[in-house]
Amino acid sequence: MRYNNLTKKYLILSFIVSFCIFTSPLALLTKGHFYYLIVIFIPIAFVVISLFYNKLKIHISFLVLIIVVIGIIIYSLLSNVDNYRGAFYGVLAIFNLLMAHWLVNQPTFLLYKVSLASLLFFYIFFILSGIKYGFSPIDLENFFLNSSRNMVSASVLILQIMYSVIYYRVNKKLPLLTPIITLLICILAYGRSGIFLSSAVLLYSIYKNYSIVALIKYSSIILIIPIISLNILDIGIESIFSAIVEKTNLSSGLKSSRKDMIYDYIKSMNLESFIFGYDLSKIPSIAFYNNNPHNSYILNHSRYGLLYFIFILYLFFLVLYEWVKEPGKSVYVILLLILLIRAAIDSMALFGFYDFVYFILFYFIVSSKANQ
After folding, report:
1. CB neighbours (10 Å) of residue 239?
2. Which of 87, 165, 224, 348 has its CA 20 to 30 A from that of 23?
3. Residue 48: count of CB within 10 angstroms of its CB
4. pLDDT-derived band of residue 313, with 50, 70 and 90 as boundaries?
5. pTM to 2 decimals?
6. CA distance 13 to 219
7. How many alpha carbons fall within 13 Å on the CB side of residue 52?
8. Contacts with 154 (C-beta within 8 Å, 6 or more apart), sequence order
9. What is the number of other CB atoms lying within 10 angstroms of the CB of residue 4?
């Protein structure tokens, strides 16, 4: 009986995680932003019922975040700036908060299996999509509906970090094989942020498992991985360096248009826009990219204003406080920091479909469960 119950929970959890991964393409097929709220209602109801049915006590930090997000949703519905889409992502944030809280209260080995299954599921999805469309950077643009190849690398990075965190809780060390596979996928996606951050996960895993000596020793090997993978793809030895520099946009460095968009948004800020948000279509450098600032924090502040600033500020300071108070939580903090950096490079998180991974890390940091 116990085995059957655990199997049932495993299947349900796997379904919910898979649902979160692929909700975005499904939601975009619906007509109008209001339907986003309907798409996400069923899993929210399921998680809420499960929380109350199992009589789980919600951590005070999560309650504060939920209260702030409820305020954000109310503000979105009253606002004239992207109100339905803003309300949808607010509802999604509550779902992710509740889901994260529910997930971390499941048996650890069960959560471990779910995190591994989610990552392997994405690997399989990537391979099948590659067989259908191809594995070149242009082909990867077709993997997700209305999303660029950057979301491919972002997705695998987030799922990798979720697996790494749960793996660490079970084995007291970080995985090494899957970060290598994740790095290879990010190389295929030809995005410098994906390559840098997935490399950071792999290098930190080596450092945490072994020592600084091992990190220095294997760093050179990791740097060779892109060259080997490009050769396997028959790009050719002569074009390896140009492929890395040009196709990954490494040559642009800080000259990226993202820098201009950040500068222009800050420049347009005044007291009113800081409190109530700002219409991104009024900023030419952002309007040029269909009002996408390629920065989660700017996008969501433009929608929610001061309330979102409070949400992020509370999250950051609480994580910092817990880290200073208990340095043993450094694994969770560093992996969360990598995710927070990723959110600053694209409009894909806080609020987004993968936020439950962010909130799982947040929960481990603020909860005594981090040391279990």
Report:
1. 12
2. 165
3. 15
4. very high
5. 0.80
6. 36
7. 5
8. 194, 342, 346, 348, 354
9. 8
Nearest 5°: phi and psi at 234? 60, 35
Measured distance CA(189)–CA(194) in Å, rounded: 8
| 99: its two tokens | 């889901």
pLDDT tens figures, 348-372: 888 888 899 999 999 999 886 555 5
Please tell me the number of Cα atoms within 13 Å of 282 on its side-chain side. Answer: 11
Residue found under tokens 């109100």: 83
Tell me which residue of 4, 23, 107, 78 sits closest to 351, measured CA to CA: 23
Are 202 and 184 contacting, i.e. CB atoms less than 8 angstroms apart? no
Q: Which residue has the tokens 């999560």?
A: 62
Given a cut of 70, whether residue 347 has pLDDT beyond it is yes
Instruction: Please count the other Cβ atoms lying within 10 Å of the Cβ belonging to residue 263.
Output: 11
- pLDDT surpasses 50 at 136: yes
Question: Greatest CA separation found in the chain?
Answer: 62
Burial environment of residue 222 by CB neighbours within 10 A (0 to 12, 13 to 18, 19 or more)? middle
Chain segment 2-43, per-residue pLDDT in tens? 445 555 555 565 555 555 555 544 444 444 444 455 555 555
